[in-house]
């Protein structure tokens, strides 16, 4: 599981390049897997698309390079890997399990690079599920809640490193209009999330296991605490004006 921005700017760039390279190479991995299967090949039962990176920043603070880097792994990596292995999955009438996020169902301020890729994974998974139904392939989506504490997705050091790079690269008009005080307040708020969320990832593991092994896997799994589950139901089922009144601060 790749992490964007963990360990400073240099390590961030290295991790992002490595993650993108791994996802880019996935297209050619199916023949490698096939070479290690016994013949006649019955196919491959399950594929779990779990690779992902994340970052933060309001829309005007986020560079197009960052949007593209996150999408390259989270969205296009999922599409490429799935397309690469679908012939084997179809042959076995197997399973595709895509790891999305609760942020693939509801947006959050300062997380647009991550949200748009996970919304994309949700749409891709739905389209694929419709197409694969008549072929006997089951497609499931796992939407984890807040597991930042368990995954060490962010640390105060990594947040400061990302923030410095972000501020240094901002257009002058954006820096002038928002001001350093506003920017610093948003970064301080982001730092409060470093140790938030659950430290137990077993609900996510259980969800993936069920999706791969159950006779009738669920379309969507929601391994998250009750607060986030309820918030997701409110945002996805009630009029936007109501959820906006509750959650926009």
Automatic annotation (TrEMBL):
GO CC, one annotated term: mitochondrial matrix
Self-association state and partner proteins as the record states: Homotetramer.
PROSITE patterns to which the protein is assigned, alphabetical: ADH_SHORT
Catalytic function, reaction form: (R)-3-hydroxybutanoate + NAD(+) = acetoacetate + NADH + H(+)
Molecular-function annotations in GO: 3-hydroxybutyrate dehydrogenase activity
Keywords: Allosteric enzyme, Lipid metabolism, Membrane, Mitochondrion, Mitochondrion inner membrane, NAD, Oxidoreductase, Transit peptide
Top enzyme category: oxidoreductase
Record protein name field: D-beta-hydroxybutyrate dehydrogenase, mitochondrial
Location of the protein in the cell: Mitochondrion inner membrane; Mitochondrion matrix
């Amino acid at each position: 599981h790749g992490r964007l921005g963990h360990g400073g700017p240099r390590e961030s760039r290295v991790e992002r390049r490595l993650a993108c390279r791994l996802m880019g190479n996935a297209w050619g991995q199916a023949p490698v897997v096939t070479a290690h299967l016994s013949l006649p090949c019955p196919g491959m039962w399950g594929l779990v698309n779990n690779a992902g990176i994340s970052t933060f920043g309001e829309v005007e603070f986020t560079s197009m390079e960052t949007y593209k880097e996150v999408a390259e792994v989270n969205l296009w990596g999922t599409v490429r890997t799935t397309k690469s292995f679908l012939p084997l999955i179809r042959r076995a009438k197997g399973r595709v399990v895509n790891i999305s996020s609760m942020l693939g169902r509801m947006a959050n301020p300062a997380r647009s690079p991550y949200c748009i890729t996970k919304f994309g994974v949700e749409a891709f998974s739905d389209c694929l599920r419709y197409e694969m139904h008549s072929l006997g392939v089951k497609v499931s989506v796992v939407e984890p809640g807040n597991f930042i504490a368990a995954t060490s997705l962010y640390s105060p050091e990594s947040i400061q490193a990302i923030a410095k790079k972000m501020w240094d690269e901002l257009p002058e008009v954006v820096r002038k209009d928002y001001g350093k005080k506003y920017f610093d307040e948003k970064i301080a708020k982001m730092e409060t999330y470093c140790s938030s969320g659950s430290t137990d990832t077993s609900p996510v593991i259980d969800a993936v296991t069920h999706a791969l092994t159950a006779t009738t896997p669920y379309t969507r799994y929601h391994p998250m605490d009750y607060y986030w589950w309820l918030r997701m139901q409110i945002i996805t089922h009630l009029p936007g004006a109501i959820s906006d009144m509750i959650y926009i601060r």
